[in-house]
Specification:
The chain contains 9 helices and no strands. With about 200 residues, it is mainly α.
Amino acid sequence: MAKKNTRNTRGKIIDAAWKLFYRQGYDDTTVEEIIEESGTSRGSFYHYFQGKDSLLSTLSDVFDQKYEALMETIDPAMDRFDQLMYLNRELFAMIENSISLDLLARLYSYQLVTRGDKSLMDHNRTYYRLLRQIALQGQERRELRSDVTVSEIVRVYALCERALIYDWCLSEGDYSLTQYSQAMMPMFLQDFRRKA
């Protein structure tokens, strides 16, 4: 019971923070506002987070929630390579339409300088588990090459996603992330597709 309450408290703080970040911007959001919006206490906030900056890494939680929702809608008969492209397209559409460039840039900057939690690289995340599952199924179904490890397929997929997001942030969003990734991801990853 305590574990569920822990997730609920942490989740309330994360949900409140991102709601405020979207609505009024990261710089204009205070810890006090996050505490008030979440209906939690100052002690609870600092139990889970060192400060507002540490909430940036929870953007990966937002991405994982999106992946979990997408997995419920994906056609199980779809080729696994196409499933990967579908997940990428839908996640990037959500990023492009719902996440500010400023927040993405801050997340990437924070991940580069933090000595602690590098949430984007946490291989226990839902993101990595789902990618490993799809890659393994793709190999079992003879849709993806089996002479390459599942870990290598997942590593390259994640690297390509990070690179595209990073470039989009550097370019200040002057092109469609979704459209660009639809062209580039298949090109980057096509070598993992099993030749007929």
